[in-house]
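Dear support,

I submitted the protein below through the web form. The confirmation email said the job was done, but the results page showed an empty box. After a refresh the structure appeared. I'm attaching both so you can tell me whether what I see now is the final result or a partial one.
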Amino acid sequence: MELFVPSDKTQWEIIKEWIKDSDLLMLILGGRYGSIEPNSGKSYTHLEYEFALENNIPVFAIVLNEQLLADKKSADVELKVYEHEIKNPCIENYKLFKEKVMSNLVSIVENINQISTEVLLIIQEFIRKDEAEYHFRGWIRGDIAKDNLELYVEFNVRKFIDYKKRQGLSNLTIDSYNNDLRIFHNFFNETKITEIDVSNIKEFLIYREDYYSVKRRTTMEKI
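What the results page shows now:
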């Protein structure tokens, strides 16, 4: 909602357009229901989730468990962590929404630091099933000409993974490759592969070891 810009369209119309343009929807659900959309009486988050399901857009949720919510509250007693703590709470709506969320793909976390790991694992699973089940459109910058795709990391990552799949490697190995190469891709972003030299690779390896807590030398050798 913080991305809204002045428009003749309603906020909900804009949100629906964003969701339709998305390959999947991720929800992080805590102890609050969220801002209410005036016409429906449901939270925008609830409406977004239902709209994605109605339009066959894959959804997954990260749910903060009760202990994590209690820890947040104990760290700051003034923080309104639970729905019943706010003015005009929608407790029943929150309960119904959470029941729906828990009936679909969900990961429950007990520590904030788990979220990034769970998201990565779930996205890898989506990617693994993409060709057979989802057919994600993905996203490529408009200024990247189609005949220059081979110059970009993302294109070559997909090509490499497809080749490894054809070799008959296990899903576990493919997921491991995906994990390493996604980090590689994020590091170099839209840098052309022709612009990546030995010094850049060394910088990446230092970054990979320092920021992702690589413990074993054999792991770094594989990377």
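Response: this is the final, complete result; the empty box was a page-load delay. The first helix runs from residue 11 to 20.
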